[in-house]
């Protein structure tokens, strides 16, 4: 059998996506399998605001064999148990999209179904009191899971906040120790074969680098996937209308919270991401309804500490490439698409794409069936995450500005409409084919945004109100005791992974 294996991979662009790809590929493929080169230019800045993650990043860290405490120290990281949404349903409203379990399922039915019944009867506390991660957020507590039997302390779901620049640096060191070759330079020309496949890239210093497989991490420009291969882009800004962000770090204000905060403003929203050494802040907004100057001022007026840099404005179009994998080029990160960081999915999409790449890793034949299936799976992931993000804008009582009036009356994808209508009727959530966000995430956001179902799962009535009340009180008591067992977030960091 002829050996058609990939011998050279070229990654264009550093930043989070480029170095995540380099670290994962060099770990799995190993130096002797093929040569991996990453080309980047220090003159080209990276966006570098993707500082919040979701729990799936732990799978990526495990693949690399990272020491978590070392990783946290070197990236000025803190821990994240969820996201707090403020002013999204209406001004003054607040809810948590917390990671992990909500209550404890009974008889194969989600806990929240029982909670919906008892809440309607006025016999249930706030949902956060039955959810360990949400309860911990309220009191700024954190710890990793321990072996505690049936206790919720045995299964604590968490992610991280980190400095994106330090994260890229950390992964670069790891990648280079695994044999990745870093080359400084700007691509000035992409050379194609007669087949339309990419043959090589030429840099501004005249050097030319050939590869069998190219990974485009060049940001919004898409130097390979778009400028060379003209792949095309699906624009989703009619559903996700925010098209700009202004970002600025500020000084820390007290101990860091173990959650991201998202606060809705009149034409967008503001993120607050606590790190060990500072707070990351940004204001995502729609330029059709707000000027850059007003957006910047709103951000500066709502910082917790002194700004540490000049505000930086980023422009984007929400959407994705029509093909994430085209010929012998795969697009990752902003080169592949962009959905605003409302649910911290940007880094996850890089991680997910890499996982699928390993499933469909090519030889030099580049089987089109495999490429097509990869693209179908990526499209599905993007589209279902897109719908989850649209939900935050569409389901709202806010009508205090033209932006919110637009959002609450816009047409939305049919799959999202079906999910909403089903939840309104009986609290059920139809999860499509292992989509990224599970039933609990959809419940937390739908209910948090103000949807109260007309009814609940029929099997809930198996239990009498008295028995159900007693069971729920027991769950609440266990959650409260578990929360009280947890140290403060700052105390946990100080004991295990404080940055030097």
What does it look like?
With 500 residues, the chain is an alpha+beta fold. It has a domain at 8-51 and 163-238 and 318-366: FAD/NAD(P)-binding domain, CATH 3.50.50.60. Helix content is 36%, strand content 19%. A seven-stranded mixed β-sheet has the order 5-4-14-15-16-13-17. A six-stranded mixed β-sheet has the order 7-2-1-11-20-19. A three-stranded antiparallel β-sheet has the order 8-9-10. Strand 14 and strand 15 (268-274) form a beta hairpin.
Helix content: 25-40%
In the CATH hierarchy, what is the class of the domain at 8-51 and 163-238 and 318-366?
A: Alpha Beta
Distance between the termini: 54 Å
CATH topology of the domain at 8-51 and 163-238 and 318-366: FAD/NAD(P)-binding domain
Count of individual helical segments: 15
Structural class, by secondary structure, is alpha+beta
Instruction: Give the amount of beta strand, in percent.
Output: 15-25%
User: How many strands?
Assistant: 21
CATH superfamily of the domain at 8-51 and 163-238 and 318-366: FAD/NAD(P)-binding domain
What would you call the shape?
globular
Low-confidence stretches: none
- Cα radius of gyration in angstroms: 23 Å
Q: From the coordinates shown, what is the CATH architecture of the domain at 8-51 and 163-238 and 318-366?
A: 3-Layer(bba) Sandwich
**What number is the mean pLDDT?**
96
Within the largest sheet, what's the order of strands? 5-4-14-15-16-13-17
